[in-house]
């Protein structure tokens, strides 16, 4: 989570691109859990939706309504493609 005072300044995008570059270097798939706020960012950065979950714990006696979450995956991009497509 990015501190509320520093959101929408590019930090989440910068960190995700950094992690994508590490995954590409090692040829690894990457999985993330996204909130409604982060879903668009991850999709723009190469992640595909695997599924959607509703984390409404109130109906099980909890107090936190976590809302919808998405599971996403990103396949590694071969390094020569990464250098010609800096978006991923
Ligand atoms: C979601 C989050 C991780 C993104 O980090 P960030 O540094 O704010 O992201 P960036 O500045 O790189 O913005 C990337 C995109 O995130 C999305 N985004 C960020 N904050 C958002 C918000 N409050 N509502 C909707 N979309 C949001 C936008 O699509 C944005 O792109 P845009 O500005 O071109 O529209 C951060 O805002 C955050 O921690 N939010 C609250 C908690 C949360 O939901 N965390 C998710 C963890 S998976």
- How much β-strand is present in the residues? 25-35%
Q: Tell me the Rg in angstroms.
A: 15 Å
> How many structural domains can be distinguished in the coordinates?
1
Average residue pLDDT: 88
Helix content: 25-40%
The appropriate CATH architecture is 3-Layer(aba) Sandwich
Annotated CATH homologous superfamily: Gcn5-related N-acetyltransferase (GNAT)
- The low-confidence parts are none
CATH top-level class: Alpha Beta
What distance lies between the first and last C-alpha atoms, to the nearest angstrom? Answer: 20 Å
Tell me the major beta sheet: 3 strands, antiparallel
Shape: globular
Bound molecules: coenzyme A
Order of helices and strands: HEHEEH
Q: How many helix segments?
A: 3
Based on secondary structure, the structural category is alpha+beta
Number of strands: 3
Q: What name does the CATH topology carry?
A: Aminopeptidase
Order of strands across the biggest sheet?
Answer: 1-3-2
Describe the protein's architecture and organization.
This protein is of the alpha+beta class. The chain has a single domain, classed as Aminopeptidase. Helices cover 35% and strands 27% of the residues. The chain contains three helices and three strands. The chain has helices spanning 11-26, 36-44, 79-84, and strands at 30-34, 48-56, 65-74. The protein has a three-stranded antiparallel sheet with strand order 1-3-2. It is globular, with a radius of gyration of 15 Å. The protein binds coenzyme A. Residues 1-2, 7-13, 34-35, 37-38, 40-41 line the site of coenzyme A (COA). Coenzyme A binds next to helix 1 and helix 2.
């Amino acid at each position: 989570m990015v501190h509320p005072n520093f959101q929408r300044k590019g930090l989440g995008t910068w960190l995700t691109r950094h992690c994508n570059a590490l995954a590409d270097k090692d040829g690894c798939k990457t999985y993330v859990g996204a909130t409604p706020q982060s879903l668009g960012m991850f999709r723009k950065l190469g992640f595909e939706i695997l599924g959607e979950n509703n984390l409404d714990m109130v109906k099980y006696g909890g107090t936190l309504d976590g809302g919808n979450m998405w599971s996403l995956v990103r396949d590694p991009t071969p390094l020569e493609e990464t250098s010609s497509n800096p978006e991923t």
